[in-house]
Write a structure and sequence with these properties.
With 316 residues, this protein is α/β, with parallel strands linked by helices. It folds into 3 domains: 123 residues, Periplasmic binding protein-like II (D-Maltodextrin-Binding Protein, domain 2), CATH 3.40.190; 77 residues, 3-Layer(aba) Sandwich (D-Maltodextrin-Binding Protein, domain 2), CATH 3.40.190; 78 residues, ACT domain (Alpha-Beta Plaits, 2-Layer Sandwich), CATH 3.30.70. The protein is 27% helix and 32% strand. The chain has 10 helices and 15 strands. Strands 1, 2, 3, 4, 5 and 11 form a 6-stranded mixed sheet that branches. Strands 8-7-9-6-10 form a 5-stranded mixed sheet. It is elongated and about 65 Å long. The N terminus is likely disordered.
């Protein structure tokens, strides 16, 4: 099994190169539909990836009548939101196995947006092929690198299948259907198979069933609604360059009765060896948000609230 690139003149590679020049943006005013094919008329929500992706599923879970606006890149998702072409964006922020989506933390910091809600999605990977094909017909499997990595045991048991990294899980199903390649398979969600009229050849092929992704619903800061029942905040901060400043900042969370559930550092672009800290913490009530920001201020060079929302249930 390999994850090598396809030859430059292969049909798949030619198709992929063409796709990269046809980005679907929020300026596209065509009707969008949900994974069942029903045309919706609700909130316009931007996602990164193709229709039928896990982000699409999460968006429909957060807003069941959403109009989904797929974007090629995460930066385009945030640009669409900032420019007012969509009402909201749904982004994956953390996977229970692969960890945080660091790019999305950086984009949250760079834009004037707030996290309004979060949800958890159980990630179920499926081997998908054209209708009427059998597993024995498949000799090439395409998917996002993370999905391929989460299905290593399945791929190892099927040594006749070569694996190839693709830009999107649902996108791998889309290209397979467009090319009508009966020897190609894709690893993606059940929604992707349904959306593109493909067939699930084997369901739930992920190595670890404890596979969940946390998604944020993000809106422009001046339009975001703060839930009065909010019990969790996300924020970014950088500490002063002096001994004990990080410890002093972290002590403030405990002093106020806030439970720090996540913290990680990210390098500051253009400033080597300087870092931004991203943190999530549970709070007793929404009123604690202002208290925490005020308590951190004396110890920090920068503090930014990324969102105040209700914590998603532990098991979706």
């Amino acid at each position: 099994m390999s994850s090598e690139a396809l030859p430059d003149d292969s049909p798949i590679e030619l198709w992929y190169r063409a796709r990269k020049h046809v980005a679907v943006t929020a300026a596209d005013t065509r009707h969008q539909s949900n994974p069942t094919g029903a045309v919706n008329t609700g909130m316009r929500i931007a996602i990164q990836g193709e229709p039928g992706s896990f982000s699409h599923e999460a968006a429909m879970k957060l807003c069941e009548d959403a109009v989904i606006v797929p974007c090629a890149l995460s930066a385009q998702v945030f640009a669409a939101l900032q420019d007012g072409n969509v009402t909201a964006a749904v982004i994956p922020i953390e996977n229970s196995l692969a960890g945080s989506v660091s790019e999305h933390f950086d984009l949250l910091l760079q834009h004037d947006v707030l996290v309004e809600r979060e949800t958890l999605l159980r990630i179920r990977h499926n081997l998908i092929g054209l209708s009427g094909t059998q597993i024995s017909d498949i000799d090439r499997v395409f998917s996002h690198p993370v999905a391929l990595a989460q299905c290593k045991h399945f791929l190892a048991r099927h040594t006749h299948m070569e694996s190839y990294a693709f830009y999107d899980t649902a996108g791998s199903v889309k290209q397979m259907v467009e090319l009508r390649d009966r020897h190609a398979g894709a690893i993606a969600s059940a929604s992707a198979a349904e959306y593109y009229g493909a067939q699930i050849l084997q369901a739930n092929i992920e190595d670890n069933p404890e596979n969940f992704t946390r998604f944020f619903l993000v809106r422009r800061a001046d339009e975001a609604n703060i839930d009065e029942a909010a019990n969790k905040i996300s924020l970014a901060f950088s500490v002063e360059n002096r001994p004990g400043s990080l410890v002093a900042a972290l002590t403030e969370f405990a002093a106020l009765g806030a439970n720090l559930t996540k913290i990680e550092s990210r390098p500051v672009h253009g400033k080597p060896w300087e870092y931004i800290f991203y943190a999530d913490c549970q709070i007793p009530s929404v009123e604690y948000t202002a208290r925490i920001l005020a308590a951190l201020a004396p110890h920090c060079a920068m503090v930014k609230l990324l969102g105040c929302y209700q914590e998603a249930a532990g098991r979706p």
